[in-house]
Amino acid sequence: MTDKKDGNDRSAEAEVIHDGDSQSLALPNQIMPSHIYLFPVNNRPFFPSQVQPVVVSAEHWESTLAKVGETPHRACGMVFVGEIPADKVEPADFAEFGCLTRIHNPLKVEGNIQFIGQGLRRFRIRRWLSKQAPFYVEIDYPEEEEGKGNEEEVKAYSMALINAVKELVKNNPLYGEELKQYLENFNPRDPSPLADFAATMTTAKGEALQDILSTVPLLPRMKKVLPLLQKELQVARLQSEISGEVNKKISERQRDFFLREQLKTIQEELGITKDDRSADADLFRGRLEKLHPPEEVMERIEEELRKLAILEKGSPEYGVTRNYLDWSTSVPWGIYSDDKLDIVEARRILDRDHDALDDVKDRIIEFLAVGTFKKEVAGSIMLLVGPPGVGKTSIGKSVAEALGRRFFRFSLGGMRDEAEIKGHRRTYIGAMPGKLVQALKVVKVANPVIMLDEVDKIGASFQGDPASALLEVLDPEQNSEFLDHYLDMRLDLSKVLFMCTANLLDTIPAPLLDRMEMIRLSGYITEEKMAIARNHLLPRALAKGGLKKSQLKISDAALRIIIEGYAREAGVRKLEKQLLKIMRKTVVWLLRDNQTTVRVSSRNLEDFLGKPVFRKEKRLTGIGVVTGLAWTALGGATLAVEATCIHEQRRGFKQTGQLGDVMRESSEIAYSYIAANIGRFGGDKEYFASRYIHLHVPEGATPKDGPSAGITMASALLLLARGMSLERPLAMTGELTLTGTVLPVGGIKEKVIAAKRQKIQELVLPEGNRGDFEELPEHVRRGLQVDFVDKYQQVAKIILGR
Q1: Can you list the positions of beta strands (E) in 273-422?
Q2: Fewest 10 Å CB contacts: which of 43, 80, 510, 773?
Q3: Beta carbons of 457 and 412 less than 8 angstroms apart
Q4: Could you tell me which of 199, 242, 196 has the C-alpha nearest to residue 216?
């Protein structure tokens, strides 16, 4: 459709307008059609003073536009319909008043039709001639009163509108183009187009603008437009104020930026450009913008940056300074992650990742609950002590996940140089910060969970003692100002949650141990190991081999044999290795024999793992044989104590079995006590007077030490003197004094678990350990008969017959 005058247009110019019985010739700009096609407008109504592009859907409105093109006037009606989609609009949705719009330069592009709409005059719909698209209506044009009798008031409103438009254009230059188009088509002193144009400059809602379009009398229309224009002006002023404040805040930074750019340009022009140095400095400054370092740290870094700017790039000092700045700006100064302080979620994560260990979980939840109550988890260092493979490191990971913190682990085992903790002086070649600064660089936050593994295996040398260096790190009163030798700046470690692990407490220095809260992790019994294998170890092994759950089936009986015959340890590390071994053989069988499922049962288990490493132990019995309970770094264990008479030629006492000094003293105390009191226990008072007694503690190749076998060795000597044997499965532990008092010992949980592992149901424990036993989980205590004693006479009564 083109936009040019033809014969129809010229005939239209000669159209006669009938007004009652009189006839008169209309001027060209007064010729307005009485029947037009309509287009719906969604967002804002079209105004007579408006010229703007219009886009309509070709699918729905191409036929309407074709009909408009066939008319001599090439004008249509633009009518506001609100938010109703164009394809669903009905006659009832159209407003009563619309704008007669002339169409210029229609163009079809990608399913849409674009054209320039020129608003001519407001009209009112009188009658619907077609209620389906294309919509066709009969209209009339209400006469616009020019404010007769109110000329002064109209003039005043016109001046107010003109002043508001001027100020609006001044605050927002984007309105300048619209004002230019208006001035090209209308007289600025004509108040009616001025009111309509002012309305188009506002961002008022469509309903408010339609109300203005429907208001034909001039003065009421101007009264409605002016408040909208004033509101728009207030918004523009506020935007200008906000922009001014923002520009004021960034002006100083912009000034520095422009000065640096000018300096860089001058240096390039003079041939003294320092591109590499500038790039390094820009890199470090860019990092600093994302950090919140303390003032003294910022001053130190700025000093080093100024030094970097004047050093020659090839000088050794330049490399030292650059490395220092690289580390200094990599530390997450003031960057903290948000803690998830939800003890219910924390318990869920601990239960998901670990079976059993309820006492350990309770202690960790108590620790987290205090932090939740304070809204801050800091100021405490936890030490997880237990045999290998019981889950110390994985508990640390679970705590980090429960808190929503980053996790970093490094091992202290074999560390001999305190510089590994506190860093090297940067004057040394190859100097680096300590492990803690390196950890913060990796996690990129200043409040991670850092696990110090194997804290009991720290070494010492002429280079210093790392354990002493850790005293500052693990002291909540001091680590807020930790000094790394390389950075030579104070670093706040008080928000870091430190967790340490150890197998033994003996090798940890007392001052270091005093700074940590100890949580003991004992070994697992068979039932707990089976649950761990089912829920954690077996799925992990299947994942490593790329196997589906349906491709490898292990029966409960086979799993129990694996635990008791191949992986009889406190932890589950060996158990996992055995499951991985089964997984590897399964993969071989699946590939070689084209099987779909491999089933492992008690009957074919040896095909996968070979003969069991541990045979079912036969409890040693006989005259002078008693089973004791011991604690080792690998958990609890049972050991038999044997006593026999070698000859009756002379009195003597001999001990074997690689006993340590403390255990030798305990055996001599037991010998002296039984020899002095054998008559009270129904034995021959002269039995030890002329006999040479040999006491042995198998296994001979394993070193043993500690005082907890005192009552066990005394019981072996007593049974030897009475010529009796202990046939029922019973085990005991306790320290004995020369007066027959039984003292409490440590490692009760490990020892009880060891007894249950050997199917021993009757135990003799010191009275002082009653509380330790009662704190054990109910499933560990279940099925045990325990006698608590504080005098050896009670022990003698138990073993000699109640």
Answers
A1: 381-385, 407-411
A2: 510
A3: yes
A4: 196
Structure tokens at 122: 């407001």
Stated as kind and residue range, the H or E segment containing 402 is helix 392-403
Q: Considering 274, 529, 751, 756, which one is annotated as catalytic?
A: 751
- Cβ burial of 581 (10 Å; 0-12, 13-18, 19+) is middle
Dihedral sign of CA atoms 672, 677, 679, 682 in order: negative
Exposure string for 218-253, b = 16+ CB within 10 A, e = fewer: bbebbebbbebbeebbeebeeeeeeeeeeeeeeeee
> How far is the C-alpha of 500 from the C-alpha of 796, rounded, in Å?
43
- Choose among 182, 158, 183, 179: nearest CA to 169: 179
Tell me which residue has tokens 């989609």.
Answer: 85
Block residue for tokens 């008969």:
785
pLDDT tens-digit series, residues 563-602: 888 887 878 889 999 999 999 999 998 888 877 888 999 8
Mean of pLDDT values over 221-241: 83
Bridge partner list, 98:
123
Closest to 602 (Cα-Cα) out of 638, 566, 557: 557
CA-CA distance, 794 to 718, in Å (whole number)? Answer: 13
Give the active site residue among 708, 715, 749, 756. 708
Which residues, at least 6 apart from 405, have a Cβ–Cβ distance to it below 8 Å? Answer: 337, 339, 445, 447, 448, 449, 497
What does DSSP assign to residue 800?
H
User: Whole-number mean pLDDT of the chain?
Assistant: 83
Residue 122 · residue 48 · CB < 8 Å = yes
* Both structure tokens of 466: 């790392």
Residues forming a β-bridge with 75: 102
Determine whether 751 is an active site residue.
Answer: yes
pLDDT at position 16, please?
33
**What pLDDT score does 17 carry?**
31
For residue 36, which of 64, 15, 4, 59 has the smallest C-alpha distance? 64
Q: Which residue has the tokens 């030629």?
A: 649
Which residues are within 8 A (CB) of 421 and not within 5 positions of it... i.e. 6 or more apart? Answer: 415, 434, 435, 436, 466, 469, 470, 473
Nearest residue to 722 (alpha-carbon basis) of 628, 801, 800: 800
Residue in the structure block whose two tokens are 């700046």: 489
Alpha-carbon dihedral sign for residues 439, 443, 448, 450: negative
Task: Strands of 364-448 (E only): list them.
Answer: 381-385, 407-411
**φ, ψ for residue 155 (rounded to 5)?**
-65, -40
End-to-end CA distance of the chain: 118
The candidate with the shortest Cα–Cα distance to 565, out of 617, 619, 613, 637, is 613
Contact of 735 with 743, CB cutoff 8 Å: yes
Instruction: Let me know if 725 is a catalytic residue.
Output: no
Angle at 409 between CA 583 and CA 575, to 5 degrees: 25
CB distance 107 to 65 below 8 Å:
no
Which pTM was predicted?
Answer: 0.57
The burial class, CB within 10 Å (0-12 / 13-18 / 19+), for 368 is: buried
**Interacting residues of 415 by C-beta distance below 8 A, sequence separation 6+:** 421, 458, 459, 466
Radius of gyration of the chain (CA): 47
Mode of pairing for the β-strands spanning 730-732 and 625-632: parallel
Residue, of 606 and 256, whose pLDDT is higher: 606
